[in-house]
Amino acid sequence: MTRRLILLACALCLLTGVAMAVPCDRDGDGTLTAPELAAAILDSLDARQMGGAVEAPPPADLRDAAFVYTHWGGRALTITDTSGQTTTLTRPLRRIALFNSDSLEMLRSIGLEPDRIVGVSKYVLEDPIFYPEYQGTANLGSVWSPDYEQAASVRPDAVFLYASISRSSCDEIEDTLSAIDPGIRFFRFDSFRPTVYADEVRTLGLLLGKSEDADRFLAFYEDATGSVAGVVDTIPVKDRIPVYLENWNDYKSAGKGSGYNEKIELAGGMNIFGDNPVEYPAIDPEAVISRNPGVIVKIVGSGETTFGGYGDDDISSFEQVCRAISDRPVWNQIRAVRDGRVHIIHTDVIGGPEYFIGTAYFAKWFYPDRFPDLDPRAVHRQYLEEFQRLDYDLDRHGTFVYPA
Amino acid sequence: MTPRRSIALCILIALLAAPVAAANIERTITSSGDDLDVTLTVTGIPVGGIVETFPDGCIWKETDHPADRTRISGQQAAFAVIGEETIHYRVQGSPEAAEAFTGTWEDLLTGGSGTVGVDGTHDPGAGKTPVETPGFLPAAAFAALAVAYRWRCGR
Question: Which of A3, B37, B103, B122 could form a disulfide linkage to B52, CB 3.0–4.6 angstroms apart?
Fold first, then answer.
């Protein structure tokens, strides 16, 4: 019995070793060299097309070897995701399941082929205008209500989850799917947080063999963010305009450490609740009056304000929300209301991977005199056409900001 | 985005956006005495394989492709492509044989495949092989000498 267990353990070790080896690395030194790749290619051609009797690598191994040689220098790739988890890969990811729809948008920005995605969250399937190519892809449910049966049935080689939100739900998904298939790799990215955005684009580019596309997208992204940062950096902290940001829930703002606080600061604003230790604090309306913001920004597109965005051409709901804020009791004493500087923005351009379009709007609203030539709509249009590859007429469709 | 930034970005993106040419391999054959000099021009296939079949009566002579990326068997030659953009090889044969060359290629990064001499992938049609004179090897050598001369003269 003991001998059997030892044999079984040895067999598992051997299998693991084989699975971890770079394909077609004949001498097993961990590096696939050009001569090794060439020999594998010739053996494959010889066996399949020239009647040779050589032992050829399986076609899948050969394709994986070509990928590893081209994109990873012939060696295993070790990457660290945004959660700090380190993973080593010896083969490319070809069947990716995503519970994180923000990462799906980022993957599209770096040109990932849609046929490498085998499962998406339900939110992707509920948005056929923005994700037309993924309608019909397996529905994995959501981070909060995952469909494990479906997720396992698509046989993913990798599952993408969020890094910094819904951690316990993501942990549970990882634990459950790992138990079903220990071979699945898990990666956690946010794809919406400014501080890690560029790093995530680079990491995903390397991971998926899309480094050139990632560099091209980052050139666009860094130009868009840089055109704001270059001006904001010249504004003394004491001169920065106080801003009240409210999400789709009335009197719910953004505190210290929240993504929205970061976005206000990137656009040169001073968040009047930026010192609140709660990420998304419920605030007292009188506190807004006493802190007297120069600009008010309300985010819509979720909760009780589920309207606007790519699938809605009617701006009237934005107007109503704007008017309702100005009509709040005693809020006519607030500088932003008196000066007509209440703005509505849809979460589609500030909450996810498109956040840099929203911060461009913020900058223009906060400092109209300092950004006379900044054109957030042009940035938005270029993003959709060049990087999201969407046939979407921004001049005719969609509602994203008010006043426009 | 300011107009100046927009222009700079357009230039940057144009520079970064390496033209992604459709995968394709063209064959050019030139006749030189008793030999046929074959040039395969590889476009958009960073890693792949080619199998060329030359007609009965032709005899393999040589290639400038590395020996460890070439395999000959009967009337067939296999080439492993790892970054090369051209492959030259020579067979002994009559000019009339040039029309009877056939070949296939595979792109190992995309999984695409096709026929040598035909634009695009998965095209089952036979490739038409252009025949040129004079021989490509002397012409290529002359061109290289001309470039070297211009470089040395600092022009």
Answer: B103
